[in-house]
Structures are given as C-alpha cells and as structure tokens.
Amino acid sequence: MVYTIRHMRLGVFAALVAGSIVPGDVSIDGGRVTGVGLLPAAAAGLAAPGFVDLQVNGFAGVDFVAADAAGYARAGAALAGTGVVAYQPTFISSPVAACVAAIARLGTLDGTPLGPRVLPAHLEGPFLSRVQHGAHNPEYLLAGDTALADALCAAGPVGYVTVAPEIDYGLELIEHLAGRGVVISLGHSDADGDTAIAAFDRGARAVTHIFNAMRRWAARDPGLPGVALSRSDVFVTAIVDNIHLAPETGRLLIAAVGDRLVLITDAIEAAGRGDGLYRLGDRAVHVRGAEARLADGTLAGSVLSMDQAVRNLVSLGASLEFALAAASRNPARLLRRDDLGELQVGGPADIVVLDDRLEVRRTLVGGAEVYAA
Ligand code: ZN
Q1: What is the CA radius of gyration of the chain?
Q2: 28-70, pLDDT tens digit by residue?
Q3: pLDDT classification of 111: cutoffs 50, 70, 90
Q4: SS3 readout for 340-370
Q5: Residues noted as catalytic
Q6: How far does residue 301's CA lie from ligand 1's centre (Å)?
C-alpha cells in the first residue's frame, strides 16, 4: 500500500544534507522535508537524497521501448526498491516509428501510480557511430538531422540525447538541440580529441558510459574519454559494475572526476530477474550472472541496480558522501534540476533510507512511501 506520510519523523540516525552527513533525525510534512538534525535520533539508518538514474532501458521484465503505463508502473515499483526516486527512460536506437511511439507513450503517463518520478526520455540514438554502435543495431543509425530531432522532441517529453559528434551534421545537431534546452551527452562515438572538443564547445555537457563504445584514449589523441576527463565543465557518466569498467578504471574516475561523476546503471529489462534471454529494443540479450551480452559477446546494457553501483563505488575507495552524490546530486546538476538530488529543509521528500551495509530500507517520493523493506 502506498500512502503519504504527514507530520512524521523518518526515524534515522543521520542524513546527507548538502553533501555532508548531519547527525539527527529528519522530519517531513506534506511531501516536503521540514527538519534535519533532530533529536532524539534513532540508533541506525541514514537518510540520503533518493537516487536519480539518467540511463535506464528497462527493469524487472519491462523494456521501455515497448512499455505501456502498466509496464512503467511495474518497473517503477522495482526501481523504488533500489532507492531510485527519478529516472530517465532510455530508448536505444530503433526504427523511427518505434522511437516516436515510445516517446509518445511516455507523454501519456500522467496519473500513473505512485513511484519514482519518470523524467523526460533519454534518446540513446539514432544519431550514433556505425563504428562504435555497441549493442545498437547499425541499421537504425542515422546522420545528424535537426528536422528529425525536432519531430522526435515534438512526439513527447525528451530531455537528454546521446550523440556521436563526428557523424555527418553531428555538430550542427548538438548545437541545435542544446539551444532547445536538451542535455547532450556524447557517446557511441569514434570522435578524435579535436572533434570532442568542438562538440563540448558547441553545447554538449556529458559523456555517456565513459570508455565504453568510444575511441580509445591514446597519448596524442585523447579521443572522447580523454577530453571529457580533462574538462571541468563536462559530466562523466559511468557504469560501475566492475564489468564495463575494471576496478582500476573505477578508481581512476574517483580520483580524476570528483563531483562531475554520475553513476548510471544502463539497466535492461533483465535487471532484477536473473539469468535468461531478454530484449533490449529488438535485440536479443543473454544474461548470465552480472553480464548482459548479445550472442556475439558485445555488452548490452547491464543488470546493475543503483544501490549496488553506490556500494561498488564505496568498495573502490570512494567516501560515502562522494558515492551518494554521484547517484543523486551530480546527475541533478547535469540536468540543471534543483528540485532533484538534494535532501534539504523545504525541498521535496524524495529520500532513500539506507542501513549500515548501504542496503535500501525505505524509499519516499514526494513524502509517499514507495518502498519499504
Ligand atoms: Zn550505450
């Protein structure tokens, strides 16, 4: 049962407020945080800003390219159990008609059951490299096309697009969409360093799943990953599952990226379901253990959950504050959403409560309990 909590204390030991751990309990009322640092505090439990995942293809048996409102509700309920309070449904490269339909369905979701906030779509394609397509079907990849991009944005809510800047008309597309307020992330790209620099100068603000599906970093050609790491104005999204990135690479990101690091899961419908054969768009994906791959072995999204990503980052040496910011405050700053990613007096009660092992005990969205262990 889902209900809104009024005039209530969470019963926690401490809270993560403005990046620091503040001892004391948290009170909420009417969907907002009304107090932090309150005494008496409970013996255990940390309240943190709920997690914001910018790249979720699907979850718990639901693939968002094909999902209806019931599917979103089912996926959302499962995502809430991983501490997620807001997410960008992510559509991989698909036939244009399928992409338009998926965006349009997203636009009809008002009134879905309570759960994580469903943010405008992340379009991961079709404006990507044929050389670095990864799990995307190369048949669906297209050159930069501002008219098509406008048509996709007109079909429903689109907030974020991953683009390969080196494709024909790629830089024009980036400048066009960034000018419309769409967040542009660079990825699935064979760009050299100079092209990456040009794309960031023209409005791109992030890199999609760094080091995966992009030209490698070399001494005299830093490529997209090297340029992204070097620029203080670029956010770095990363799949920290110790499969997409070696542990040493994860440690490099902790050291080099600081508050520009954004954890993403890139989860697919197999997440939370176990081994088997699943879909990602119209691709068949084989899942064994923690790995999701096409038949040819190409990694195809992940079965990672955001709470596990946070635990992984801490295991690699990040502080708790650092890891939690990478799952909440940093993605909110990338989206320029000051209503997300913070736990603060007067702000929305979008909260995850974690135990000493960083397992999710409870998730609230707008003061409504959407998950309890
Ligand atoms: Zn990808």
Answers
A1: 20
A2: 999 999 999 999 999 999 999 999 999 999 999 999 999 999 9
A3: low
A4: CCCCCCCCECCEEEECCCCCEEEEEECCEEE
A5: 266
A6: 7
Q: How far apart are CA 306 and CA 84, in angstroms?
A: 7
Beta bridge partners of 236: 207, 261
**Structure confidence at residue 6 as a pLDDT band (50, 70, 90):** low
User: How remote is the CA of residue 8 from the centroid of ligand 1, in Å?
Assistant: 41
Cis status, amide bond into 89, omega within 30 of 0: no
Alpha-carbon gap, residue 133 to 164, rounded angstroms? 10
Q: Quick check: 5 pLDDT over 60?
A: no
How far, in Å, CA of 160 to CA of 230, rounded?
22
- Give the integer Cα–Cα distance in Å for 356 and 153: 43
Q: Strand, coil or helix: what is 84?
A: strand
Bridge partners (DSSP) of residue 86 are 52, 117
User: Which class in CATH covers the domain with range 1-50+343-373?
Assistant: mainly beta
Helices (runs of H) and strands (runs of E) counted in the chain: 10, 23
Structure tokens at 241: 């599952």
Q: How far is the CA of 91 from the centre of ligand 1 (A)?
A: 10
Backbone angles phi, psi at 182, to 5 degrees: -80, 135
**CA of 165 relative to ligand 1 center, distance in Å:** 15
pLDDT of residue 230: 97
DSSP class of 192: -
List the chain domain ranges: 1-50+343-373, 51-340
Ligand 1 centroid to Cα of residue 232, in Å, is 23
Query: What is the CATH code for 51-340?
Result: 3.20.20.140
Query: Distance from the CA of 139 to the center of ligand 1, in angstroms?
Result: 16
What's the distance, Cα to Cα, between the start and end of the chain in Å? 13
Write down the pLDDT at residue 299: 96
Tokens for 176, please give them.
């066009």
In sequence order, which residues have a C-beta less than 8 Å from that of residue 243 and are 6 or more positions away? 290, 291, 299, 302
Q: Could you tell me the CA-to-CA distances from 255 to 125, 228, 242, 251, 259 in Å, in that order?
A: 30, 14, 16, 6, 10
CA distance 318 to 370: 28
pLDDT tens string 252-311? 999 999 999 999 999 999 999 999 999 998 899 999 999 999 999 999 999 999 999 999
